[in-house]
Design goal:
About 40% of the residues lie in helices and about 20% in strands. It contains 8 helices and 10 strands. The longest helix has 18 residues. It holds the Pfam family PIG-L.
Amino acid sequence: MSDLQEFPTDWQTALVLVAHPDDPEYGMAAAVARWTGEGRRVVYALASSGEAGIEGMAPERAGPLREAEQRASAAFVGVDEVEFWGFPDGDIRNTSELRSKVTESLERIAPQVVLTLFGGPEWAPGSPNHRDHVEFTAAVVAAFDALPADRRPTWLFENGPQPSHAVDVTDQIDAAVRSLAAHQEYLSVLDPDTPVIDQARAQIDRMTAPRADFGGVAAACFQRRRGPA
């Protein structure tokens, strides 16, 4: 097993591109908390408002609620720039419209680092990826690659099962748990029998487990898709 590399540090702005509310919290929030604590700028951009994501709740109610939960969640890890693009939850596609929006955001925010979702078809054999995630990440990669070299961010990472880089998040676990637990309504419907804080703790502990290939410390992990090794 090869050791993971340290995540790059020579950058100031990161753009987190995801499909739905709560997507940043499952694998990225602890790293984001560390970065904002170091004075770096992190911006969240979400393709949808997650309006189809709460069973039994009408989309016109669920969308604003999930936006509010995402903003509260982001604040726990030091992010105060959160935007929603209005693409349809559950029907996100790698269209020219979506690629154009990604391009516009890359050029407007001018990050050095872009973080997005795992875009492969399966997390593991028999564990399919969400179709929205697959389509969204394909659009992000296509838009990234289409930018002229002199306007392209330095790195593109995805939050996937075969990481190449890691961030020591030993001191950011509690912030990440609070960040995920801010999705109170969503999580309480998803698993009504388990307290939201316990759900959040279990997920964050799983996603930031100590890594033998990274010095045995709690780590948030990312796979490099583009940029220098």
